[in-house]
Amino acid sequence: MKAANGGTGGRPPRVTVLGAGPAGIAAAYALSRGKAEVEVLERAAVPGGNAASFQIDGIWCDYGSHRFHPVADPQVLADVKALLGEDLLLRPRHGRIRLGGRWIHFPLKLQDALVKLPPRFAAALVGDILLKRFRRPAEGPRSFSSVLYEGLGPTISENFYFPYVRKLWGLDPDRLAVTLAERRVSGSSVGKILSKMLRMVPGLRGETTGRFYYPRKGFGQICASMAEAAAGQGAAFRFGARITRIERSGNRVTAVITEAEGTETRHEAEQVFSTIPLTAVVRLMDPPPPPEVVTAAESIRFRGMILVYLILGTDRFTEYDAHYFPELSIPISRMSEPKNYNAASAPQGRTVLCAELPCDPGEKWWDMSDEELGRQYCEWLGSLGLPVRVPVLRTETRRIAHAYPVYDIDYQRHFETVDGWLSSLEGFLSFGRQGLFAHDNTHHAFAMAYGAADVLTPQGGIDRARWAEYRHEFESHRVED
After folding, report:
1. Of the ranges 158-167, 294-303, 328-337, which one carries the lowest mean pLDDT score?
2. Same domain for 283 and 342?
């Protein structure tokens, strides 16, 4: 507890971190470098959250397709490089996307697009470019669809982005907020897309253009290494700890209560740094927040996802690291082959294909057995000209209830209600993808965590003015595919 004068009695402030995903681990790592005494509470048995890795038949697999991008904050990138050393590989992007019934390299390459784009698609795209100056802005409130139409035109919008977002979020583009277009679509105009393609031309691209960082032992090695380093610096990790309530007295959070193996534990600290879903925080608050905050939290939702892992009896299925499927004819949005991310040659005679199937609990896919989903997976690949002609050894799945924040038209006012109340609490700070309802990459989560550590004062308080500056910076984060 705090000393009577409002300080910490000469010792470093204590911080309880909720969640050991990327943001929670990075916060523990930054804080434990002499800034605070840190305790991390995590329900799972291992660190990393959805950014962890695991093995299937000796193959390192991720929860979907993950990359660490070279555009990360310089300090974040430097720390990750120092932690992993030679285990952090710089790999070329080598994926492909299906457009107009044809496979095109992804990220888009100018020469590939010129040769492989269907003639009708290419002609329509040129028409969109020429007619852009004559397009009239849509009337009424702006939405994801209106912004994309204005910037990209109907061809790319209707043949790629619109069907893709329908799969990812389960909503029509007209029901999605402008924020999604601002944060999720980095190439929001034809000019920006062409500029990206030109930067990929040999002789014009930089050392890391069209490349990504990836660890030898799966993407989760980043979080595992950072968690190990944080523990070495004194951070305490409590795995298998289920948070049952967050206690507060008036406007101050006073303690977090966890349950493990039938025993409750009370955790007190000067600050609680929360990286768990802000909707869960509202449910856990004791006493509950005002009714309008509870109602707003109930209106905020996340999109779920099933990850379907097809284990095949062959060295490799394709040469590509990822396939993107914008068409609505199949429900999966992306497929990755983990061995192609870290160029692993072992084990021989085995590979894994991971399909990302956006859906929520209660939808028909959610309750299907692994075997049923595996059969469907093979049928979908066959319909796309990728027949599975090698032995299918078995299928495994992982289900994620909080995969993506859903930016529907009304989300902003609901988020502001919840975020405003949480921000008013003393001894509490919420950040990260789940904590700020942000559709971000892992390097963005690390940057948020570093910012949170920076605003902790020696007396155990929060520099709110500085945190407001960081929050403004976070709004400029743009998702890297």
Report:
1. 158-167
2. no
Contact indicator for 48, 40 with CB cutoff of 8 Å: no
Decide if 183 is inside a domain.
yes
Residue 131 or 144, more confident: 144
Q: What is the DSSP letter of 13?
A: P
Query: Quick one: what percent of the chain has pLDDT higher than 70?
Result: 90
Structural domain span for residue 130: 106-199
170, 360 contact by CB (below 8 A): yes
Nearest to 352 by CA among 72, 54, 70: 54
The CA-atom distances, in angstroms, between 168 and each of 3, 325, 331, 350, 373 are: 49, 11, 9, 29, 18
Decide if pLDDT at 2 tops 60.
Answer: no
> Which CATH number do you get for residue 83?
3.50.50.60
- Yes or no: say if 216 and 68 are a contact pair by the CB < 8 Å rule: no
- Token pair listed for 458: 């020696």
Contact 62, 219 (CB under 8 A): yes
pLDDT value for 3: 37
Distance CA 346, CA 221 (A): 18
Residue 118's pLDDT is: 76
Please report which confidence band the pLDDT of residue 195 belongs to, taking 50, 70 and 90 as the band edges.
Answer: low
What pLDDT score does 6 carry? 44
Q: In Å, how far are 57, 177, 217, 424 from 310, measured between CA atoms?
A: 11, 35, 19, 47
Q: What is the CATH number of the domain that holds 398?
A: 3.90.660.20
Same structural domain, 374 and 455: no
Are residue 391 and residue 449 in the same domain, yes or no?
Answer: no
CB atoms within 10 A of CB 364: 8
What single-letter amino acid sits at 273? Answer: F
Residues 477 and 479: their CA atoms lie apart, in Å, by: 7
Cα 18 from Cα 43, distance rounded (Å): 9
Query: From residue 16, how far is each of 27, 271, 339, 429, 460 by CA, in Å?
Result: 10, 6, 37, 10, 12
* pTM for this entry: 0.91
Cβ neighbours of 139 (radius 10 Å): 6
The per-residue pLDDT for range 3-15, each reduced to its tens digit, is 333 456 678 999 9
Q: Are residues 315 and 432 in the same domain?
A: no
Does residue 64 lie within any of the structural domains? Answer: no
**Contacts of residue 208, Cβ cutoff 8 Å, sequence gap at least 6:** 70, 90
